[in-house]
Amino acid sequence: MFPIMIVIENNIHYQRRSRIMKSRNMYIAIISLVLISLLVIGCGAQEELKESANGQAPKNEESSAETVDETKVVKHAMGETEIPVNPERIAVMFARDVESLLVLGVTPIGATHYVPGEFDTVAEYNQELKDAGVIDFGEQGTPNMEALLEAEPDLIILTDWHEMYEEASKIAPTIMLDTYGWDRFEELASILDKETEAEAFKKAYDKKIMVAKNILQKHVKEDETTLFISVYDKQIGVTDKGFIFNQLLYDKLGLTPPPDVIPEDEQAMITAEGLVDANPDIIFVSKHNDVFYDEIFSNPAVQQINAVKNNRVYELHPSFVRNLKGESLAIDFVTESITGEKE
């Protein structure tokens, strides 16, 4: 009887021990699982902290950020177009826009020109563009579309007289603007999210205008007139009231044009006799043809014009009469020319 009881007790003891071992193993397994989980979570949190310290978004946020605000829809003269939020390869087909972009801190991948061999901007910017390898797409009226295609732009900017919208749109998102002057500058700033830069430039410009106007009032008599002309091949052009340099002379600096000479809407051509009849006291001239220029101002009748007799004919760079940076420099040029003093 005792051996049987011993065997039974041994079996009971064995079973209890077995259950204890299983419980212990299960407990160890659970603890191990918890520790591994905490380790994985800790490593993930540490990695996110490292990414944050390095200015990087955690990967789950980064992937979602890539899909947000990549493009935006812009309204323009041809409707609406989806463009990159931050375009990096802008192609400028209207030559004057290149300077507006530079003022806003944006360098285009390429641009057309107005004067062969030069981008349509002041000398300082022109050299910077050439040094930066900006592509010349050719004359603004007939740009090189093959060069435009090879440049792989991510945004193309046209003006309203370009007849290439459909063709350009096949290359990259294309917008066409029908504004000019300051309105166009502000529209470009809005499209490129550069309103702060535009506001800073305009503020400095307005201050310069105020100072220059006060100086000129002391050097130009109330009855003296000022005229801007362009000398072409066998033609003398007088630009309209809305032309950027005329707005500078008359609307902003307060100078007076000769009566009945400035056209309302577009540039008009006058003869040497017409220039004599206008008899301006001050002449600013944009020279596009040296031979005809010399012919005009060697004319005995023209030499009797007040401005010519009194050596108040001032030749200025073409970029001074068209562009914003040029206009800012033109304020200095006009003031220094009339007063004979440098600021």
UniProtKB/TrEMBL annotation:
<keyword id="KW-0732">Signal</keyword>
<dbReference type="InterPro" id="IPR051313">
    <property type="entry name" value="Bact_iron-sidero_bind"/>
</dbReference>
<comment type="similarity">
    <text>Belongs to the bacterial solute-binding protein 8 family.</text>
</comment>
<protein>
    <submittedName>
        <fullName>ABC transporter substrate-binding protein</fullName>
    </submittedName>
</protein>
<dbReference type="GO" id="GO:0030288">
    <property type="term" value="C:outer membrane-bounded periplasmic space"/>
</dbReference>
<dbReference type="GO" id="GO:0005886">
    <property type="term" value="C:plasma membrane"/>
</dbReference>
<dbReference type="InterPro" id="IPR002491">
    <property type="entry name" value="ABC_transptr_periplasmic_BD"/>
</dbReference>
<dbReference type="GO" id="GO:1901678">
    <property type="term" value="P:iron coordination entity transport"/>
</dbReference>
<keyword id="KW-0813">Transport</keyword>
<dbReference type="Pfam" id="PF01497">
    <property type="entry name" value="Peripla_BP_2"/>
</dbReference>
<feature type="domain" description="Fe/B12 periplasmic-binding">
    <location>
        <begin position="89"/>
        <end position="343"/>
    </location>
</feature>
